[in-house]
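Bug report (template v2)

What were you trying to do?
Predict the complex of my protein with phycocyanobilin.

What happened?
Run completed; filing so the output is reviewed.

Input:
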Amino acid sequence: MRDAVTNLIRNYDVTGRYLDRSAIDRLKSYFESGNARIKTATVINANSANIVKQAGSRLFEELPELISPGGNAYTTRRYSACLRDMDYYLRYASYALVAGDMNVLDERVLQGLRETYNSLGVPISPTVRGIQIMKEMIKEMLQAEGVENTSFVDEPFDHITRELSEVSI
Ligand SMILES: CCC1=C(C)/C(=C/C2=NC(=C\c3[nH]c(/C=C4\NC(=O)[C@H](C)[C@H]4CC)c(C)c3CCC(=O)O)/C(CCC(=O)O)=C2C)NC1=O
């Protein structure tokens, strides 16, 4: 697992360089967004159950076929598995936000996931939609708390959806 600082230092150490202007600019930007990142983790922690539940309801309202007979989230067991997956995405996205690095997602969440989903028939594009709904909810909550620039929130959610959507070769 890596974070923005260790990742940057690693890259400079590999080539034996001192931290130059570009490194310092990247560090500055990471530390300047630090309070907002911590606030986001706080908001997610305080609302996680609610975010997952509401995002799930919105997803099933938009795509009711998911929870109808023949749908992948039909039956209580699969419905719960779906919400549990949403909860995984939310929790790991909060780690990646604080770390300022997406490596934790690659290592702990995304490895082999597409293959698992394909073999179980879990549909990717509705999963992507569910993840995007959670992202939108968090951005709205942060704006309500006075955080003006919430663009950094996109990164982990978009990273997960991009990796999930990638067509296997
Ligand atoms: C921490 C990293 C991690 C992830 C991400 C993870 C995902 C994950 N989701 C699974 C299943 C599942 N995932 C879903 C999800 C959905 N179905 C839908 O129609 C919706 C679109 C969607 C919810 C948004 C469902 C329904 C299953 C059960 C499928 C089945 O058993 O038939 C499975 C198969 C094993 C199981 O059922 O537990 C895995 C491994 N497991 C992990 O350890």
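What did the reviewer find?
The CA atoms of residues 59 and 130 lie 6 Å apart. The chain has a mean pLDDT of 96.
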